[in-house]
UniProtKB/TrEMBL annotation:
Keyword Lipoprotein: yes
Top-level taxon of origin: Eukaryota
Keywords tagged on the record: GTP-binding, Lipoprotein, Membrane, Nucleotide-binding, Prenylation
Protein location: Endomembrane system; Membrane
Matching InterPro entries: P-loop_NTPase (IPR027417), Rab29/Rab38/Rab32 (IPR030697), Small_GTP-bd (IPR005225), Small_GTPase (IPR001806)
Species annotation: Gallus gallus (Chicken)
Membrane topology field: Lipid-anchor
Protein name: Ras-related protein Rab
Keyword Cell division: no
């Protein structure tokens, strides 16, 4: 039951990237703790809500906007991006072309959305499907760090929507992700996605 003196904060976060990189699956794993192998393309935009009881006095609601991969070629992204406080750009480690598209997504985002202070929104790069034995990221960590610095990402993470759980010794979806966001110009909320393989810049 919510306490009367609890503070609630709502943050809109974008999840963008090329078609089929696993955006919807990542969100389902994070919000509902499940994974479906059946692919269904998102049409337009879809939504999910994650509620975090940050502490005894604070509830944080994350409104995740799952934007279809083909939308970058349309005229609606400006509308979808509006008032977002941060973004994830996702690529598939098994499909190099989706990594090549990352800079195009970042350019599209930065050209259409800035924070009230005029700065770009904090953006995290997610390297998805790392459960499929692709070691390119492990071998190119330094290059990835440099790529993120050059392109304005606050950090990058290896993720997998398919596997989860410490007991399996597998790569977790719930990585400690996220950036700090000011709450009413005073507090800082660290929004956590959960554990290992972190790359903060």
């Amino acid at each position: 039951m919510q306490k009367h003196n609890q503070k609630e904060h709502l943050y809109k976060l974008l999840v963008i990237g090329d078609l089929g990189v696993g955006k919807t699956s990542i969100i389902k794993r994070y919000v509902h703790q499940n994974f479906s192998p059946h692919y269904r393309a998102t049409i337009g935009v879809d939504f999910a809500l994650k509620v975090l009881s940050w502490d005894a006095e604070t509830v944080v609601r994350l409104q995740l906007w799952d934007i279809a991969g083909q939308e970058r070629f349309g005229n609606m992204t400006r509308v979808y991006y509006r008032e977002a406080m941060g973004a994830f750009i996702v690529f598939d480690v098994t499909r190099p072309a989706t990594f090549e598209a990352v800079t195009k997504w970042k350019e599209d985002l930065d050209s259409k959305l800035v924070l009230p202070n005029g700065k770009p929104v904090p953006t995290v790069l997610l390297a998805n499907k790392c459960d499929q034995g692709i070691d390119v990221l492990m071998n190119n960590g330094i290059k990835m760090d440099q790529f993120c610095k050059e392109n304005g990402f606050v950090g990058w993470f290896e993720t997998s929507a398919k596997v989860s759980g410490h007991e399996e010794g597998s790569v977790l979806l719930e990585e400690p992700i996220l950036w700090s966001v000011k709450i009413k110009e005073k507090a800082m909320v660290w929004l956590c996605w959960s554990e290992p393989s972190r790359r903060w810049l």
